[in-house]
Design goal:
The protein is an alpha/beta fold. 35% of the residues lie in helices and 14% in strands. It has 2 domains: 158 residues, Rossmann fold (3-Layer(aba) Sandwich), CATH 3.40.50; 116 residues, Nitrogenase molybdenum iron protein domain (Rossmann fold), CATH 3.40.50.
C-alpha cells in the first residue's frame, strides 16, 4: 500500500496543516475496536500505469466525493487538485493526502477553478449540477468533463473510474488482485467454518445485517460463514422475538453516529445481550461503520479485509 503516515509526535493522524483527522479509541462498550490505531496514511495504493496508447491525466477535479475511493485505490490521489463539494465531504479513512485537497464547494469561483487547472473533471449524475457550476465559471479551458455511471455494485463503479482515467487494464488488475487475496485469506483461515454476525446500531434501531451491505459483500468474497438468519439480503431490526438472531461464533458491531453509539452502549449492557454466546465468550468486536457500511470502494475493501483477518485470527485464538 502506497503512502507513508502523516502524524504528529502525539501519534494523532493529522493533515499537512496540522488538523486532526482521527483520534484513537480502543473500546465501544465492552467490545474492542478492530484496528483502532489504523494508519489512514497508508490507505491509498501505489500509482497505476495509464493504458497503452492513451493520454495520462495529471490534474483532476472531482464533483462527487464517492469517486475518491477509486482514485485512491488507483494511486491517483496526488492528481486530485480539488473537490467540488462542501468542506468535510472527504471520508477520513482516505487519509491526509486527500483530506488536504481543497474543497471548493457547490458553486466554485473562476479563481478556484483556475487554481486547480484540471485536465479532467469527474462527475456523476447525482452531482451534475456541480459540474455545470464548474463549466459556468469559464475557467475549465480544455479540461475533459466525464460523467461516471455509478452502480450499486462497487466493483463496477471502480472500473468505471478506472476507464475514465484511462486505466482500464490497471483497474481490472487491481480488482483481480483483491479478489485473489480475499479468497486466499478465506482459504488459509478456514473462513467458512466461522460464523460471523453483523450488528449495526443506528440512532433508531439495532439492525441485524444481511448479505447486501458493503462489509457483508467483502465477507462473502472471503467466504466467511454467516448465521442462518443472516443469509438473506436485507437487514432486519432486532426485536425481543428475534434477538438471538444476532448471535454467532463472533459478532462484529458498529455504530452510526452519536445516536448509534448511545444505542449500542445501552443494548450491549443488557442481560439479554450479555447472555448470548458470543458476548459470554468475549467474542464481540467493533468495526468502523463508515468503512463497512457507507463508503464502498476498493480502498475501503482492503481495510475491511484487514479487519476480517484480525477478527478471524482473534476468533481462532479463542477456541
Amino acid at each position: 500500500m502506497g503512502l507513508s503516515a502523516c502524524t504528529a509526535d502525539d501519534d494523532v493522524l493529522r493533515t499537512p496543516d496540522g488538523s486532526i483527522i482521527s483520534t484513537t479509541t480502543t473500546k465501544f462498550a465492552e467490545a474492542n475496536i478492530v484496528n483502532a490505531g489504523r494508519d489512514y496514511g497508508r490507505t491509498c495504493l501505489a500509482p497505476t500505469p495509464v493504458d497503452a496508447g492513451r493520454q495520462d491525466v495529471t490534474r483532476i477535479v472531482v464533483t462527487d466525493p464517492a469517486l475518491l475511493d477509486a482514485l485512491c485505490a488507483l494511486g491517483l490521489g496526488p492528481s486530485v487538485r480539488a473537490v467540488a463539494a462542501p468542506q468535510g465531504s472527504v471520508p477520513a479513512y482516505l487519509g491526509p493526502q486527500l483530506a488536504s485537497v481543497p474543497a471548493i464547494g457547490d458553486a466554485p469561483t473562476a479563481d478556484q477553478v483556475t487554481q486547480a487547472r484540471p485536465d479532467l473533471v469527474l462527475t456523476t449524475s447525482a452531482t451534475s449540477a456541480r459540474a455545470d457550476a464548474l463549466t459556468a465559471t469559464g475557467a475549465l479551458g480544455s479540461a475533459r468533463v466525464t460523467r461516471v455511471e455509478t452502480s450499486p455494485d462497487w466493483q463496477k463503479t471502480f472500473q468505471a473510474v478506472a476507464t475514465a482515467t484511462n486505466r482500464s487494464t490497471a483497474g481490472r488488475d487491481r480488482l483481480a488482485e483483491f479478489v485473489a487475496e480475499a479468497t486466499r485469506v478465506g482459504r488459509v483461515m478456514d473462513a467458512p467454518h466461522t460464523q460471523v454476525s453483523l450488528v449495526r446500531f443506528t440512532p433508531d434501531d439495532t439492525m441485524i445485517e444481511g448479505t447486501s451491505s458493503f462489509g457483508a459483500q467483502i465477507m462473502s468474497i472471503v467466504g466467511v460463514g454467516r448465521p442462518a438468519a443472516q443469509r438473506v439480503p436485507d437487514a432486519v431490526a432486532q426485536t425481543s422475538a428475534n434477538f438471538t438472531d444476532a448471535d454467532a461464533d463472533l459478532i462484529l458491531v458498529s455504530h452510526e453516529g452519536d445516536g448509534g453509539f448511545s444505542r449500542g452502549h445501552d443494548v450491549m449492557s443488557t442481560d439479554e445481550w450479555l447472555n448470548m454466546g458470543a458476548p459470554t465468550w468475549k467474542r464481540v468486536e467493533a468495526v468502523d461503520d463508515s468503512v463497512w457500511y457507507t463508503q464502498p470502494g476498493l480502498a475501503s475493501a482492503w481495510l475491511v479485509l484487514n479487519d476480517i483477518k484480525v477478527c478471524l485470527n482473534s476468533s481462532s485464538a479463542g477456541e
